[in-house]
Amino acid sequence: MAIVSVHSNHKPNPRWENASFRLGFARLVTRYWRHKGWHEDDILVQSAGLLSGTPGILIHGRLDIGGPLITPWRLNTNWPGSELVLVDEAGHDARDQV
Predict the structure, then answer these.
(1) Is the dihedral of CA 28, 5, 64, 86 positive or negative?
(2) C-alpha torsion 42→46→51→55, nearest 10
(3) Do 62 and 97 reside in the same domain of the chain?
(4) Dihedrals φ, ψ of 83, to 5°?
(5) 3-class SS at 30?
(6) Do 20 and 48 reside in the same domain of the chain?
(7) Phi and psi of 60, rounded to 5°?
(8) Is residue 58 domain-shared with residue 75, that is, in the same domain?
(9) Which domain holds residue 24?
(10) pLDDT block averages, 10 residues each, the chain of length 98
C-alpha cells in the first residue's frame, strides 16, 4: 500500500475507493501519530540493542518518500546483527519488486 508514489504508472489499491476504508485509515493513523505510537520519543531505536543476537533484515525502498532512510539506518546502527537492504526501485508499496 503506497501513501505517496513517485512512479508515473502507479495504480492505487482499489480499497482507497471505499470512503469507509479511507475514513477508518485516517482515524487510525492520526490516532497513532497524535500519541506517538504510545512510546517515548525514540525509544524503539534506543532499545534496538536488546535485539542483539536476534538476526533481522530491514528492507527499505530508496523511493520511499513517506518513510525517510534515516529511521531504518538508525535502527540498523543500534541493532547488532541486523542488515539494512536498500531497494533502488522500490518505494513504500508492498507490491514493489524487491
Answers:
(1) positive
(2) 80
(3) yes
(4) -130, 135
(5) helix
(6) no
(7) -135, 130
(8) yes
(9) 12-39
(10) 64 87 92 81 91 95 87 95 93 73
